[in-house]
């Protein structure tokens, strides 16, 4: 008799909240550098918006010489760009902060990566023209809801400095992994801002406006701001560029292993330059060794997969660490930069395993 077939076991999202929906990518089980949309993490502030592709128009107004109202067909006819980009929620790893901070208690899975296709935002702004005095580009989403701290209804809106908006790789995307962007990830149009935390990559774009002042919406002036002090807002500054970071995917935290050979695997990424080195320690930081990195031709906006071969000679408990360095000289610190809202965690990654 033939052996019975084993059921196919597939990873699934980890739920952090249902209303609004916030779910983590099972990053420890992702073996590809492209995350399928069903496993792409979901970060929402409000309920999903109601949208119809058939009557979708994108207005561009404000300090422009020729305001525009573009249809999807207009956008699809424009020259496109395709980029592989990692998107990381600025609250990724928030649950690891000590002392604890309030907010969605993300573990290590508020990060995903895939292939985005769209129109450079600069091409749209060149089409409309930018008037003198323009400072920022505001992108408004269709998602909205009440903020209980302000007792008022807001749409999710964010701005970019003109220089960042005009970067050739800042794009209005309409495809993810060669398919229309899935609804839960911003269909039909999503802003993609490589190298910045993903709050900048506004979903379900409703409007683009050029302004001559600094935008002060609550998702820019209250949220997504680093507050280093528990007691007050002194020395606050905005969340923007992704910090250099790494995550150990294998083995899993608290795994029980046999003595002998094992492969430690993970990913590393940064918002400045590229990752140039990943180091691994199997003795809680007393000694470090370089990991092997899997490079492609252009890793500007991608994570790097890395691996390290480890031979366990003795039984016991081990603390395994990973530490990434990028081309600007940034290295993951031993301790995170604590801030009141829990953004930008990028301390040396750590797991514990036991050998029996």
UniProtKB/TrEMBL annotation:
GO terms for biological process: sulfur compound metabolic process. Its cofactor is Mo-molybdopterin. InterPro entries: Ig_E-set, MoCF_OxRdtse_dimer, Mopterin_OxRdtase_euk, OxRdtase_Mopterin-bd_dom, OxRdtase_Mopterin-bd_sf. One of its GO terms (molecular function) is heme binding. It comes from the Bacteria. Pfam families: Mo-co_dimer, Oxidored_molyb. Residues 45-215 form the Oxidoreductase molybdopterin-binding domain. Keywords: Metal-binding, Molybdenum, Oxidoreductase. Residues 240-343 form the Moybdenum cofactor oxidoreductase dimerisation domain. PANTHER family: SULFITE OXIDASE, MITOCHONDRIAL, SULFITE REDUCTASE. This is Sulfite oxidase. It comes from Mesobacillus zeae.
């Amino acid at each position: 008799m033939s052996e019975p077939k084993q059921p196919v076991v597939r990873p699934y999202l980890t739920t952090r909240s249902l209303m609004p929906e916030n779910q983590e990518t099972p990053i420890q089980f992702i073996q590809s550098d492209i995350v399928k949309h069903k496993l792409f993490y979901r970060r929402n502030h409000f309920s999903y918006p109601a949208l119809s592709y058939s009557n979708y128009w994108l207005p561009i107004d404000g300090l422009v010489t020729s305001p525009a109202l573009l249809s999807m067909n207009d956008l699809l006819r424009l020259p496109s760009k395709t980029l592989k980009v990692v998107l990381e929620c600025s609250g990724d790893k928030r649950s690891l902060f000590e002392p604890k901070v309030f907010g969605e208690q993300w573990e290590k899975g508020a990060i995903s990566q895939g292939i985005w296709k769209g129109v450079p935002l600069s091409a749209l702004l060149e089409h409309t023209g930018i008037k003198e005095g323009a400072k920022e580009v505001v992108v408004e989403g269709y998602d909205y809801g009440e903020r209980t701290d302000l007792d008022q209804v807001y749409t999710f809106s964010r701005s970019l400095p003109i220089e960042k908006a005009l970067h050739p790789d800042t794009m209005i995307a309409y495809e993810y992994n060669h398919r229309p962007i899935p609804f839960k990830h911003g269909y039909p149009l999503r802003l993609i801002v490589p190298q910045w935390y993903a709050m900048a990559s506004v979903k379900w774009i409703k409007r683009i406006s050029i302004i001559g002042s600094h935008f002060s919406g609550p998702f820019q002036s209250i949220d997504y701001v680093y507050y280093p002090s528990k007691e007050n807002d002194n020395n606050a500054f905005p969340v923007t560029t992704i910090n250099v970071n790494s995550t150990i995917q294998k083995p899993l935290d608290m795994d029980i292993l046999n003595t002998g050979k094992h492969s430690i695997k993970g990913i590393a990424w940064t918002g400045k330059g590229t990752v140039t080195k990943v180091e691994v320690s199997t003795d809680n930081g007393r000694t470090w060794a370089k990991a092997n990195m899997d490079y492609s031709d252009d890793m500007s906006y991608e994570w790097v997969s890395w691996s390290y071969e480890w031979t366990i000679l003795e039984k016991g408990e081990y603390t395994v660490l990973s530490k990434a360095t990028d081309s600007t000289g940034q290295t993951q610190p031993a301790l995170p930069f604590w801030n009141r809202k829990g953004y930008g965690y990028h301390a040396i990654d750590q797991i514990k395993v036991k050998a029996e």
